């Protein structure tokens, strides 16, 4: 007997992406290198809670890191409350310091234990002896004796040194508005002597009206505006950079005409590099959508800038095809060289340049690959370890694989040959880790002799192994994921598929999830879980891993519980592939811009699975996916008949400056006609199916006026639609059971043809 709809909802709510990790034991571990050779410890999921294992790679011996009960007793005494280390994570364990996942810390010693008070956020010098912190609108320095002194002057509101921009604070309300942050756009030199910092001039920046409809401290709504430049507004203020000698107090302050400050704040902190004598600092000057990128050499005494090397590419240059990953750039100060990324030969490779002359010496990497992340550069061995995707062997080009290559060219070794995804910890953008946390030790040991590899596919649970970096040989198995609770909950494993695009030659890869217990086995409706953006790869590539938007792309099993088949696809115009594939949708303003690949793929899947009902195809997505889910319905109204669009960027004119540069180039001003063509409003009269628009009223990333603009266009086109506004929800917090269930209601009623449960089953 098939389950009733309320039971299907209960099962689906147990399988939403935010709950899946809790149903798997030991899907992933984070190695914490102790500093004693290549020894490391990690937390595992034991039968009765967290356990901590210390590993000696040389002999591959494993033993408990500490006595869990004894440590819990000591910590309970310190904090005056029971500490259960079976459920509270230890995040730092050093001889005299323990930090917990809830933020508490304790100093442990033979003469007694004590709590470590919380400190204000600060940027530590490489030797850990000094801290740089923000006070009012300037930066201050605290030395190891606790003495403080001011290091910048002249900071003011909206023109403050090391401060987050007003737009970014509103853009990321989850963390940035609720707690103080360490200095942003700020870096300390390796010796700890020099400080590089910047400030954005937002004093004349226009205000974007924003209303908090439900403030917690009053009945009346509160106007809470933030500032940013819309795409057609020209900035007036000029950012500044400063290089400060923390010993002498000497400063070089200069106007930043190259956009370095914004890049430093957002993505490039990790690619700031200093010459061996710290006479120069190197920074990447590049704007998304620009044809040229340059590595600038900045004199740390005067601020004078020269171009160390540059590359111009048509139609655009990209320092990494994955928008939210670090630029593929690494300066080698000892040898005056730099590793540089380019797609000039039709793939995505690393090249070695001479910093003195700016001349390219040779290509480092080889083959039909696209480099994704630089994990380690060993200047002594003249080697680089990097993650890349490839389709050379007929495998999934989105699988992450670890390679080793000689900086001197000619020798490249694949260290992870298994046909699977290999998940290693890649360096993350410093801004994101500051806001959201998640910074962790590298997957590669301090000596570079071994690494921790998570091996899996979407259909094969994770095996975690320790490997040798010389040959890739497996030293030993660390963990194997236990998915018994997941399968008991009704999880359905997705199936990887490959089809051909409508050009007859381009391979498309994606995931198909079929319901185990469909309502009608002969006629199963299909939902496209769509993002279709140039920014990230959408589909998961490993077991519950990979993919740029897991809260949407990993919904397949939940929808399967309801009776739907789902598809996740990365069509042309998305990252991780060759430049032709990658840039196929650039400046394609009046076309579906890659969505036709989704139609082609679903039709090809239906030919292989005749139970898929092509008369009932739905689409849903969030943010850029919310935009594309509507565009799919308007571009292919006869194919996509039901859609749920969440926080879609429907009006290109309403996004901040630079948001559409990948499509239109970095030149300003933008052509108003092209902005109209990019948006969905002009296509409103093409709506035929059932469309639900949803948005949170606290969303500052894609503000509510985007949805209102589309509503207005639909009204003028005399089209019916449905609307739900989530009060108090921002761009990131709309994944509650209530929100999930109400969006499912729409598909259950209009695509599945069933009645949603009368009462929400949670």
From TrEMBL:
<dbReference type="Pfam" id="PF00930">
    <property type="entry name" value="DPPIV_N"/>
</dbReference>
<dbReference type="InterPro" id="IPR002469">
    <property type="entry name" value="Peptidase_S9B_N"/>
</dbReference>
<protein>
    <submittedName>
        <fullName>DPP IV N-terminal domain-containing protein</fullName>
    </submittedName>
</protein>
<dbReference type="Pfam" id="PF00326">
    <property type="entry name" value="Peptidase_S9"/>
</dbReference>
<feature type="domain" description="Dipeptidylpeptidase IV N-terminal">
    <location>
        <begin position="116"/>
        <end position="461"/>
    </location>
</feature>
<dbReference type="InterPro" id="IPR029058">
    <property type="entry name" value="AB_hydrolase_fold"/>
</dbReference>
<dbReference type="InterPro" id="IPR050278">
    <property type="entry name" value="Serine_Prot_S9B/DPPIV"/>
</dbReference>
<feature type="domain" description="Peptidase S9 prolyl oligopeptidase catalytic">
    <location>
        <begin position="559"/>
        <end position="751"/>
    </location>
</feature>
<dbReference type="InterPro" id="IPR001375">
    <property type="entry name" value="Peptidase_S9_cat"/>
</dbReference>
């Amino acid at each position: 007997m098939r389950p009733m709809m309320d039971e299907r909802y209960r099962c689906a709510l147990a399988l939403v992406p935010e709950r899946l990790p809790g149903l798997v034991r030991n899907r992933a571990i984070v190695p914490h290198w102790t500093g004693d050779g290549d020894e490391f410890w990690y937390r595992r999921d034991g039968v009765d809670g967290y356990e901590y294992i210390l590993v000696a790679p040389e002999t591959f011996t494993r033993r408990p890191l500490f006595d869990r009960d004894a440590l819990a007793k000591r910590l309970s005494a310190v904090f005056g409350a029971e500490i259960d280390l079976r459920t509270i994570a230890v995040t730092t364990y050093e001889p005299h310091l323990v930090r917990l996942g809830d933020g508490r810390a304790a100093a442990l010693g033979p003469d007694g234990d004590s709590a470590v008070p919380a400190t204000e956020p600060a940027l530590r010098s490489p030797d850990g002896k000094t801290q740089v912190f923000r006070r009012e609108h300037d930066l201050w320095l605290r030395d190891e004796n606790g003495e403080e002194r001011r290091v910048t002057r002249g900071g003011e509101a909206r023109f403050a040194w090391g401060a987050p921009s007003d737009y970014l604070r509103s853009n990321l309300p989850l963390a940035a508005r609720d707690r103080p942050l360490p200095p942003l756009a700020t870096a300390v030199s390796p010796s700890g002597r020099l400080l590089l910092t910047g400030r954005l001039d937002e004093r004349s920046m226009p205000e974007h009206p924003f209303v908090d409809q439900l403030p917690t401290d009053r009945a009346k709504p509160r106007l809470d505006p933030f500032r940013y430049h819309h795409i057609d507004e020209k900035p007036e203020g000029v950012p500044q950079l400063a290089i400060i000698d923390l010993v002498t107090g000497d400063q070089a302050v200069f106007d930043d005409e190259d956009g370095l400050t914004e890049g430093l704040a957002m993505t490039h902190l990790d690619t700031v590099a200093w010459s061996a004598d710290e006479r120069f600092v190197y920074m990447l000057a590049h704007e998304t959508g620009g044809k040229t990128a340059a590595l600038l050499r900045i004199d740390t005494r005067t601020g004078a800038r020269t171009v160390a090397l540059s590359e111009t590419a048509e139609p655009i240059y990209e320092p990494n095809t994955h928008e939210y990953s670090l630029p593929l750039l690494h300066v080698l100060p000892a040898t005056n060289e730099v590793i540089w990324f380019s797609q000039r030969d039709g793939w995505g490779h690393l090249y070695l340049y001479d910093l003195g002359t700016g001349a390219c010496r040779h290509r480092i990497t080889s083959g039909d690959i696209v480099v994704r992340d630089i994990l380690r550069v060993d200047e002594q061995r003249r080697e680089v370890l990097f993650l890349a995707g490839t389709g050379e062997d007929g495998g999934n080009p989105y699988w992450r694989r670890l390679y080793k290559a000689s900086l001197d060219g000619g020798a490249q070794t694949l260290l992870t040959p298994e046909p699977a995804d290999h998940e290693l910890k890649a360096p993350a953008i410093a801004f994101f880790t500051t806001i959201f946390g998640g910074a962790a030790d590298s997957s590669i040991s301090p000596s570079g002799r071994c690494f921790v590899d998570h091996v899996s596919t979407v259909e094969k649970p994770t095996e975690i192994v320790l490997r040798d970096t010389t040959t890739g040989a497996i030293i030993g198995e660390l963990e194997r994921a236990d998915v018994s609770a997941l399968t008991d909950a009704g999880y359905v494993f997705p199936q990887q598929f490959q089809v051909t695009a409508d050009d007859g030659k381009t391979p498309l890869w994606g995931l198909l999830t079929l319901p185990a217990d469909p309502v009608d086995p002969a006629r199963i409706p299909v939902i496209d879980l769509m993002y279709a953006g140039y920014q990230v790869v959408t589909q998961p590539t490993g077991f519950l891993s990979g993919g740029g938007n897991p809260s949407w792309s990993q919904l397949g099993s939940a929808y399967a519980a309801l009776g739907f088949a789902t598809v996740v696809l990365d069509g042309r115009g998305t990252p991780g592939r060759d430049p032709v594939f990658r840039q196929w949708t650039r400046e394609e303003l009046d076309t579906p811009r890659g969505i036709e690949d989704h139609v082609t793929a679903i039709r090809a899947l239906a030919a292989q699975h005749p139970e898929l009902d092509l008369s009932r195809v739905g689409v849903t997505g969030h943010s850029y996916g919310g935009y594309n889910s509507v565009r799919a319905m308007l571009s292919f109204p006869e194919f996509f008949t039901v859609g749920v669009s969440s926080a879609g960027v429907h009006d290109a004119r309403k996004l901040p400056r630079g948001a559409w540069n990948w499509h239109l180039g970095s030149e300003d001003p933008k052509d108003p006609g092209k902005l109209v063509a990019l948006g969905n409003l002009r296509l409103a009269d093409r709506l035929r199916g059932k469309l639900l628009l949803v948005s949170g009223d606290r969303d500052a990333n894609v503000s509510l006026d985007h949805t209102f603009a589309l509503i207005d266009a639909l009204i003028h086109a005399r089209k019916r639609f449905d609307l739900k506004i989530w009060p108090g929800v921002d761009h990131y917090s709309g994944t509650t059971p209530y929100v999930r269930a109400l969006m499912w209601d729409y598909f259950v009623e209009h695509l599945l043809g069933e009645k949603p449960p009368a009462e929400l089953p949670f």
